[in-house]
Give the backbone structure.
Amino acid sequence: MRLYLLARNPTDSVTEGFLPAAARLGLGVTVLTDQPEAHLRIYPDIEILGCDVRDFRAVITRIATHHPPDAVFTNSDHLQIQTALAADFFGLPAKSWQAALRAKDKAHMRRHLAATGADTVWSTELAAGQDPAGLTGSDVPYPCVVKPRDGVASEDVVLVERPEELLTRCKEIQARRPEAALVVEEYLAGELYTLETLGDARTRHVLGGFHTELSPPPYFVEERMTFVAAHPEPVVAQVLAQLDRLGVGFGACHTEFVAHEGRARIIEVNYRAVGDQCDLLLAELLGIPLFEHILRIHLGEPSPPADLGARTDGAARLEYPRATSAGTLTAAPAAADLLVDGVKLRYRPLRPVGERHELHHSNRDHLGVLRATGTDQETVDRTVAGFLAAQSWEITR
């Protein structure tokens, strides 16, 4: 059987998750990507074809002139719509391209949730190049959030307190991204969480989620993720109801939401498996073949109807040491795998020593990721704190 996997830049989810899972399932894999050299350096034994994966017509043509497909899949935020259209073209199991668009396009998501009565958030859209001065006469609620309509990884997402600041922030982002449309929306108060789901056309499994801790405002950089085995049932019900209104449910989905005074409100929907090594941690912590489950669904196999057989005694945390200034990374810990007081620690650097970076105020500032799993949260937290206290990351301006 042949799996076509669409990708842009290489990711840990693909390298350590989906490609090994495809091998265990006995699948032939063809990677379609607009960055073939980057992928060839990491897995030279996989068939990799250059393709403008941002264009669904190019994807369909590349597949049609190569091996017959049994599944077309991506875990990229940027390529869900193209993948859905290509899979549907070949009559293969696929996400609804309309649902993929609603998830990717944050303005469409807000409009659709409001139109269906699921949730109404004050929101407006600035087209690429549109003068933000027009916002000064509108009823923008403050504080508000400005973000790219199709953005990822908290890039150029910023909290704004005053009208003059709104104009400044919009112009700054437009200067960096002249082709990007922007969304301005009310700030939603509450603790930030995620809900991780897996489903097919009939069954949806809730895999738990994470409590996300962010950098201080005005930016929204993820610093820490703590596993939550089960959110309160009313909260889960509210999030799932909103996903249903969006038409989201096939395959994996990573949903970010805030919970405040019993009310759950979606921040964004990432119609893919959770990234930043959370998916690798989730598979290990739950003791399930998560990546195989996802691929099987895209091959047309039904999701297990009831219990996935996941462990329920796990505790986990991820930490993302980050740069707080621009400069060259001159010292940092190496990769490490440790077992301390029953807690399994895996540290992986995300930026090589000697490389210079500007400060992005996003997840691109992460210097490394520490995954910790055990059976007691206090022990996990204490072990993580001890490991981080013993390390040093040095940046020279």
Observations:
- The chain has a mean pLDDT of 95.
- The first helix runs from residue 12 to 24.
- Residues 174 and 276 are 27 Å apart (CA to CA).
- DSSP finds eleven helices and 20 strands in the chain.
